[in-house]
Design a protein that fits this description.
Elements (H helix, E strand, L loop, with lengths): L4 H4 L5 H10 L1 E5 L5 H11 L3 E5 L24 H12 L4 E5 L8 H5 L4 E4 L4 H14 L3 E7 L2 E7 L24 H20 L8 E6 L4 E6 L7 H4 L2
Parallel strand pairs: 1-2, 1-4, 2-3, 4-5
Antiparallel strand pairs: 5-6, 6-7, 7-8
The chain binds zinc ion.
The site of zinc ion has 7 residues, from helix 8.
Length: 237
Amino acid sequence: MMRYQRQVLMNQIGENGQNILKQSKVVVIGAGGLASPVLTYLTCAGVGTITLVDYDTISESNLNRQFLYGEKEVGKSKVEVAEEVLSRINSTITIHQVSEKLEENNIMEIIKGSDVVIDCVDNVETRLIVNRGCLQMDIPLVEGGVNGFYGFIIAIKREYACLQCVRYGDTVLKRPSPALGAVVGVIGSLQAVECIKILLGLEGVLYGRMLNYDGLSASFETVEIQKNHMCQAHSII
Ligand SMILES: [Zn+2]
């Protein structure tokens, strides 16, 4: 327990909470920029089982934000290198690799049995598939995204607004989207915090609220978002 001494000291965690984290299963979709802090902090915190989902290989243009990888790993599989790095940080946790493209027809199998899903992808199509899959399976989802100096995060479950409730994806974004590594780090770290709060059953999770971060003005703003009765993702539950 020495490894977790500083977090076990927290009233919200303690030895009991640490055991809960150890028993927890989290699926992280995407092993890129947001996933770098997400995976690192969940691994450090002792989340017992982490599934990494990504079919991509490391490219040089990833390196400004995907700090799990270095120059020597360009061309290698992201999930393989990520597993290696994370096991070096904490050999007591279990890491599963899924090197498949996430689609409508495999999402259920991949997220089945998990306590939380964290979405760390950079495209609208996959986000909406993950959003629908988590609502259908009734698994809490932590979403986050970055555009330049701006980032957002939101927690989703059946009783609250989802990405489709707010018509996410209706605006066409620039591809590839611009991203400053440090901003990606802020948002990914926030996703890890929300995930740990959900696992521990703590209050104050960002359900029904979107947290916006503007790095240029150095400000955070939380906006309440309502469930939309016309939402197609919610209507299929
Ligand atoms: Zn919805």
